Amino acid sequence: MTMLPAMLLQAIPQTADYVRILPELVLSIFGIIVMMLDPLVDEEKSQKTLGGIAFVGTMVALFSTWYTSKSPGMAFSNTIRIDSFSIFFIFLVIAIAAVVILSSFEYMAVQRIRAGEYYALILFGVVGMSVMSSATELVLIFIGLEISSISTYILAGFRRNEAASSESSLKYFLLGSFATAFFLYGVALMFGATGSTNIDVISQKLQSSPAEVLVYVAMALMFVGLGFKVAAAPFHVWTPDVYEGAPAPVVGFMSTAPKAAAFAVLLRVVFAINAPGRFWFLWFAAALSMTLGNVGALVQSNVKRLLAYSSIAHAGYLLVAFAMTTPENSITGISAAMFYTAAYAAMNVGAFTVVSHFANAGERYVTLEDYEGLGRSSPLLAASLTIFLLSLIGIPMTGGFFAKFYVFSAALRANLIWLTLIGVSNSAIGAYYYLRIIVAMYMRESRKEVPVTPVSFGVGLALALSLIATLYLGLLPNRVLQIAQHSAQDLVSQSSTGAAEVARAPLGAAVPPR
Amino acid sequence: MNDAFSPYIVSLVTFAPLAGALLLTILPRRDRDIRVIALLVSLITFAVSLHLPVHFHRALPGFQFEIDKQWISSPNIHYHMAIDGISMWLVVLTTFLTPLCVLISWKSVHDRVKEFFILLLILETALIGVFTSLDLFLFYFFWEATLIPMALLIGVFGHERRVYAAVKFFMYTMIASVFMLAAILWLYAQTGSFDFVFIRDQIASGAIKNFPAAAQWLFLGFFLAFAVKVPLFPFHTWLPDAHVEAPTAGSVLLAGVLLKMGTYGMLRFNLGLFPEQSRHNAPWIMTLALIGIIYGALVAMVQPNMKKLIAYSSVSHLGFVVLGIFSFTQSGLNGAMFVMLAHGVSTGGLFMLAGILHERRHTYEISEFGGLASIMPVYSTSYLFIVLASVGLPLLNGFIGEFLVLNGAFQAKPIYGILGATGVIWSACYLLWMFQRVFYGKVTNPLNNSMADMLGFEKAAVWPCAVAALVMGVAPILWLAAIDPAVQNSLMPFAQTISKAVMQ
User: Fold this and answer.
1) Distance from A237 to chain B by nearest Cα, in Å?
2) pLDDT by residue (tens digit) across B394-444?
């Protein structure tokens, strides 16, 4: 009888619990402030003010992430885990949001979209993604997934007057809900099989007893849901249409941040649970994504569609790092995947910043033909897009090179020679279509009148930040890689020792009464 | 020279052009200033690079001016740069040709001048880096880094079909080099190091457990990347397009230095890391080299386009280099090295001379010309000199290298030497025939009557090549004294494999 009050007492959140969700709290508060101010401020001038508040929000959130990182541990009855792994991804998604907000000021003004909720939705979306990064409870992960998805569904439809944008939003919404339903179904089956939705407990259960068929089915369903979110083949079909219709800065956002969060979940599911029977599934998903993405991109003439296919291919390269089985290989694989996520975010956000600046009112200029002669008319813009594209190809001195490099060397260390060969041949094929954009910019003269607008401060800053990140990761990758390796060790050790710790912890609420 | 400075001299030579390129980016677009500064930077680089042969200890076979610092701890990547007798001369060749490229582009490049010289200097840094890096990762880094400036030089500043040529060049080399990357990654996964010397010793001592099974694939991974770059028949089809469309300076560096990256790679990495596989694969590689020599020469003979003719002559000459390398003889390797240098100088000169004609008439068609000897006497004399050097006239540079290569090929197998020797005859045929059609006879095309003879800056660009060709032909020992010990060093494992084979 004395146990019950003590348990209740411990179930009440402490200060430490709140510190461990501080970034999410900050982002939510700023999101609410933006929503509240939106009807109060003048409609004409509101854009800059609200966007500015949102940007400040991300900065404060970055700072609070740093604060949170000082108190690692579990929070809210073992549903949230703050360790270097979750901090890495929280930091990444917030940083992406900050850069995207910067590049959105000018875009929103040019497109004549007046809406404070745009910035609020980005902030709320990031809350969902941070929750996905730090949650160790499948139900909480699902909630995070929904928060982030719903925000991005709406964001995709923000060019209200364009049919393409509404189509994009609706397509994304319908298929996305379908996919999250798969994920939820997988969670339910996992609960049925192991009696828990806590990743640590599941991991422990699966280690102590051989996996039943139900576990495999649950894993497969969860993979379907997450595979959709990261746009991995064969769940990639939505990507080109959605990316083509959605506003360009939003594409820059949703091709990086939700993907990074989904990869964080996938890493947890694969490596912390030590999911059984995953190897061939991931092998084929990786090979198929790389090949379909690259081959699809070869024939595109719309730059946004081209980058959509390229993002499928990059999801494939990333999945190569997941096809690891032994714990030592897992560490190199996880750290390679984490580095890749960061490098991909830097270069892709940068590329979409250029695309969204250049697209102009109504996104009229998004085909390869429009890019002709850009090297002459705006040399700086063209030069930075070139660096991002070279990084996407994987040329040395850019982040993209080390990203591919780590992934493939991890794969070779795990003796995945065929997958590596498929990967490197694919990256050679991939060079061709990125090169087409560079060729158009520098080697052809413009055939039609494309207005050149001066780069605003926000876009310039966003570009500079992405460039610095891309080149930093390409020249001095050490520090980020060390953080990734440290986090990877954390994650792998959870699958073996972490689960035992949870069981030993005084709070028994996580272990279900069975 | 004080020893404290010597580790940094290689880095200084490598990155001086890059520093110059960065300087150019912040300068205003005054074309004249930019040209002068590019020339100064490249001349200073050349002067500094001369420090290497002057202070090089010729008797020592190993690497000198070595610097080895950790760059990235995980993966274990080192900033490991050094030179030996082989790479030293290729570095000097690069620094020698770059100022000439600046000079020859003085007037011919008038649009986007700043970008042109920035790219040229970046290319120089990347090329020197390829020859000086001893860390496989660093090597790959520079190897890929040569690709972009060269592709842009062709694609932006080239002639009509430049985009096609640039993309073809980029894709050919990119696709081939990813297989080298895969091989490098495999070696790293097994040894935990990218260091060339370390990996070589590991392989030689048999410390890598899966090595015997993978060796052939690794050899091929490296070889494919190099063979495309050389280019070895049948991977040569990108070369004529790239050359014909490239601006003159691009062609000079492409033929003069870029192709040598491939043969240098074979010599350093294929022979250095995989001696046994090199020996196993030598027969078909030498066959391809011989096909390249003869086929390249025959195709060159029927070219109506002067630049294409010179391009195919490169295929033929580089065949000699590969033939010499895979003969595994002292003489063959010395000769291969010497042909590389001689070809760099004389073909560089030929491309510049072809560029001078193009400047005046905007065509490379041989049939457009005729009887130029009476109109442009200085030009014709310079042209004849370089042609004779390229043909292999004794006392000029082409002769020494080809002689040594053929000597080596005879030692390896007489039939290789006999077939290779026909290449010398062919090269005399196509070059002298071309010379006859362009310079002798009557002036058939009235447009040619008004052509000016060589201008001052053109003389300054071409004549150093002629002088170098003469000095190399008269005193080859100046070069071979450093090359010979390095070659001997790289042939060491072959002596061992032979003795091993004899023991069994």
Assistant:
1) 28
2) 888 888 888 899 888 888 888 888 888 888 888 888 889 888 888 888 888
Report cis status (omega within 30 of 0) of the bond before B75: yes
CA–CA dist B261, B361 (Å, integer): 33
Q: Do A427 and B147 touch (CB under 8 A)?
A: no
CB atoms within 10 A of CB A2: 6
Report the C-alpha gap between A246 and A239 in whole angstroms: 11
DSSP string, A344-382: HHHHHHHHHHHHHHHHTGGG---BGGGGTTHHHH-HHHH
- ipTM, 2 dp: 0.75
The verdict on whether omega for the bond into residue B231 sits within 30 degrees of 0, i.e. cis, is: yes
Nearest to B185 among A376, A412, A431 (CB): A412
Please tell me whether residue A142 adopts helix, strand or coil conformation: helix
Please tell me the distance from the alpha carbon of residue A56 to that of residue A30, in angstroms, as a whole number. Answer: 8
- Whether the CB-CB separation of A457 and A299 falls below 8 Å is answered with no
Classified as helix, coil or strand, A236 is: coil
Residue of chain B with shortest Cα separation from A402: B75
Where is average pLDDT lowest: A321-335, B69-83, B388-402, B490-504? B490-504
Q: Is B22 on the interface with A (CB under 8 A)?
A: no
**B85-108 helix and B6-26 helix, angle to the nearest 10 degrees:** 20
* Closest C-alpha to B222, from B260, B265, B192, B252: B265
Phi, psi of B305 (to 5 degrees): -105, 125
- Delimit the domains of chain A by residue range: 18-504
* CB A329, CB A412: distance < 8 Å: no
In this structure, which amino acid lies at residue B447? Answer: L
Rounded CA-CA distance A410/A332 in Å is: 6
